[in-house]
Amino acid sequence: MAAPVLDRRARRPDRAAPGSFGTRSRTLFRPRRVAVGVVVLALLWEAVSLLVTRGVEHPEFVMPDLVHVARYGLPGLADYYTGWLGGTPPSAGGERTWPMGLAALVEHGAISVGRILVGFVLGLAAGVLLGLLMSASRAVRNAGFGIATLLRTLPVLALGPLFTLWFGATSAMSVSFVAFAVGLVMLVATMTAVANLDLDVVRYSRSLGLGAFAVQRRVVLPAILPELGGAALVAVPLAWSVLLASEIYGIQEGLGWMMGKAVQFTLVDRITVIAVVFVLLTFVMLRAVQAISARITRWAE
Amino acid sequence: MAVKSMAVKSAGAVDLAAAPRAEATGHTAAPAFRLRDLVLEYREGTQVVRPIDGVDLEVPQGEFTCILGPSGHGKSTLLRCLAGLIAPAGGTVEAAGEQVSGPGADRGMVFQQDAIPMWLRVEDNVAFGPRMRGVPPREYRERVDRLITEVGLDDRRRAWPRQLSGGMRKRVAIAAVFANDPDVLLMDEPFSALDFFTRSRLQNLLLQLWAETGKTICFVTHDIDEALVLADRIVVVKDGGIAMDVPVAFPRPRGEELRALPEAQDLRRELLDILGEG
């Protein structure tokens, strides 16, 4: 009779046992669990909606049920559509329909996605580059680490008005604010990862004849990539929060702007639809960053 | 502290006067290393610690020198100074007649822990040094291929280091250092974390590569038996100085029969006495 398998993971030779060499923690993604989570959340929403709106005259302004959200929230977004993808928006005499609402989401979603991608990439590159530069010298590292850690503890969203004042209500403001937030996370992560790097790896490379620049580029950077991948995953939700905040501060387009307009008139159904879109986009970006990170650091899995 | 070179008598029946390998191979150039009144120190809080204090030493080219000593007595620090990773607080270090001012490709190093780039496949790891130094591939490709074969990793060329055992990763490190074609190999207890059989295999592999290339090797270990198997010469570093410096002229290859040699037993006992003193 076969011996009982105590650790289920031991059945899978391709899956390392917990704590074994070369493993690293990964954000688990199980489609079935996500689907269950969505259903549970929807049920919870319905239950809470029923509870808190009992006896309320206009429940749609407090917490509308999901049927109301689907019926009025999505078509209502058509009010923010400019006709960019064709069709007649309500502002030009058209009707509030699902397709028009979807068109508004695509139009403003594309603008927001564009801003966040540019800001994210800029922030990531700047944070890592600055982190490597600051780590190259002990004096700069000690000074910079204190500043970066202090800035990291600040509520980044509170700096939004400053960016609006500096850049105006423009895409540049939104992009730079996202880049700042992401850059700060990546800067601290880079400096921490370099500080934790096994010095023998650097010494080994230097004994092979690599110069200081080659060591930074060919050894330090690849060696800290797994840690940077983890930091990038932390930066994604932060970037979306910052984007939302930046767009609410007066920019005339983007998902955050739509959200701001809906908040002005307490249109909870529309707010709910936009919030769901934000969650979906954040989730998709998280998966994309995770996939890219896993690909780049496949040697470390 | 002056070198006690030859001052400590070793096993009587062993031919300690036998010519060292460097002379046997006809090397007449400047020594691989020449240390003069070397002092190494570092700060520990407000205290200044001197792990090496006033050492004189010459290592001829082509010699296999084992630096033996108890843990914490400065042998790894000394090796790192030879690599140029630590600057002397006093005295001088010359490599092949040139003042050592930093690490260089002429002095390759193998560490106790895994230090090879984990993000490079085996063949890229072995070719890492020459490739990074801008050596044209035609000048190192054949050497890299030969070394991968010699260390027995032909079928693991495309493997990531994490997919290899500890012994295999050590073979990658050895091949990588030899592929970079340094004048000197500095090895800091490279086999100490390995099991007995793996260690024996790697010792034989190292000796084979050494015999083929005639490189100078400085090998730090705290294992007397390992030093007896490998070395042309054993330098005992203790309390910041050289407590013993003795040539080892047992015939090679040195297998299990070495343990039975009365001369080896005498030298082993003597080394044990020195290491155990104080």
TrEMBL record, chain A:
<feature type="transmembrane region" description="Helical">
    <location>
        <begin position="145"/>
        <end position="169"/>
    </location>
</feature>
<keyword id="KW-0813">Transport</keyword>
<dbReference type="InterPro" id="IPR000515">
    <property type="entry name" value="MetI-like"/>
</dbReference>
<protein>
    <recommendedName>
        <fullName>ABC transmembrane type-1 domain-containing protein</fullName>
    </recommendedName>
</protein>
<keyword id="KW-0812">Transmembrane</keyword>
<feature type="transmembrane region" description="Helical">
    <location>
        <begin position="175"/>
        <end position="197"/>
    </location>
</feature>
<keyword id="KW-1003">Cell membrane</keyword>
<dbReference type="InterPro" id="IPR035906">
    <property type="entry name" value="MetI-like_sf"/>
</dbReference>
<feature type="transmembrane region" description="Helical">
    <location>
        <begin position="34"/>
        <end position="53"/>
    </location>
</feature>
<keyword id="KW-0472">Membrane</keyword>
<feature type="domain" description="ABC transmembrane type-1">
    <location>
        <begin position="105"/>
        <end position="289"/>
    </location>
</feature>
<feature type="region of interest" description="Disordered">
    <location>
        <begin position="1"/>
        <end position="22"/>
    </location>
</feature>
<dbReference type="Pfam" id="PF00528">
    <property type="entry name" value="BPD_transp_1"/>
</dbReference>
<comment type="similarity">
    <text>Belongs to the binding-protein-dependent transport system permease family.</text>
</comment>
<keyword id="KW-1133">Transmembrane helix</keyword>
<feature type="transmembrane region" description="Helical">
    <location>
        <begin position="271"/>
        <end position="289"/>
    </location>
</feature>
<feature type="transmembrane region" description="Helical">
    <location>
        <begin position="228"/>
        <end position="251"/>
    </location>
</feature>
<feature type="transmembrane region" description="Helical">
    <location>
        <begin position="110"/>
        <end position="133"/>
    </location>
</feature>
